[in-house]
Give the backbone structure.
Amino acid sequence: MNLTFLNSHPIQYFAPLYRRLSEEGSFELEVWYCSAHGLKGEVDREFGTSVKWDIPVLEGYKARFLKNYSPKPGIYGFWGLMNLGLIPMLFAKEKGMLVVHGWGYFSNLLALLAGRLTGHQVCLRGETPACHEAHRTGWKKWLRTFFVRNVLGGLSHKILFIGEENRNFYLRYGISEDKLVFTPYAVDNDRFQQQAAELRPQSTELKKHLHLPEDKVIILFSGKYIQKKRPLDLLAAFARCRKRKDAHLVFMGEGELRSEMEAFISHEGLQNVTLTGFVNQSEVAKYYATADVFVMCSGLGETWGLSTNEAMNFALPVILSDLTGSHADLVAEGESGFVFKTGDVEALAEKLDKLISLRPEERQRMGQRSLEIISNYSFDRIIEGLRTIARQGEAKTDMSLSKHP
């Protein structure tokens, strides 16, 4: 079966999956991109700096860029992607499986509709977690229910859920269980685990290279310094930690909140905090290899948080907020880490103190549990889900042919 993925633009996390699918050979794969954003080092609004990934995002699989007819092209709004050429392309393409990633752009909904009309097996892969929906009441909830159940559910043959919170989102709005297929959010586990094996033994040298203390528990945050990621919560919690002198906090990232973070660090007299600035993909492994604990304290808008997957491949215990979309999947409470209520600085400080206070071998045991958990969130599981859909589609075709010899 031929398989087409539709993405807004090349994404560093998805490219290894597409290479793997091409190598694996079950599908004839083509990836359609609605925009070339990120390939020329454009300024990322949230990083606040020019970003061009230094790992290949177009190698090893067949990709095509679609013409964008939007009067205001871009990836930051619904009308920013209007790729009208989708329609004739889907008519011309041999019938197969179409996976549309997300519904946040005009082109996504156009692809769902055109894919259905042209006889393709249409699959939607979204991210939204149920834990972000509590604020919707009254007419907003009714409208959301109508849209998810009748528009998204009506146009999709299958919906690919990325984790438990995402699955509960669809069930909450009336999508039937038999329409849902597990294709977890994953990173290139093999690559990150290989890097962990190579770099972990060099952690002392790496700490010197990165100007990090050798005798402290390294707490790592990875992400943009933006409101959604709530980095100031982590700073405030760290300032309240009783064991703060035994730890060093590293913010791997960049963004608009840097000046506020620097002001807080100065006001509180925090000597043991590092703001790295933007770190590209080829360098992130060095920070994971030196870390002892990983924290993601995001709020609304954090639909998953793939840097948690990266950290867990380095066998790190994790602390996640309860609005981080992956918390229900990736944290075994007390075994691989902890979950705390988003915005509860005192609770976060308490979890930090617990992990800082543990003996190294105790943290390592928790890290091994992280490694066990993340093995289920892999490219293999995604491919397994796609094969399941393909087999079901073939079975339906065979049944139809048997009725009309």
User: Anything to note?
Assistant: Residues 397-402 have pLDDT under 50 and may be disordered.
